[in-house]
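quick one
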Amino acid sequence: MACDCYNRVKDLIREKTGDPKASFNGMVVIDKNGARWIPTIEIFYHKKKKDGTFNKNLSKMDLSYEYCPFCGKKLEEDYEEED
Ligand SMILES: [Zn+2]
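structure w/ zinc ion:
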């Protein structure tokens, strides 16, 4: 990551809550550049049924983002494309 905001804010959250395991939503992504953790936010929505109506229950989905919500820096450097 281009900044240290997540570690800094994670320490603050753990300090304020007293929970040594408090953390952010995120997921591990594995691709040609290796494995890395990326932060995500949780999206809630009603799935659409085939008849066009919506399910009563909420579904959720993780959405990743490219810029740090705390300082605005791009979270990952762009990788050089190799041929
Ligand atoms: Zn940041």
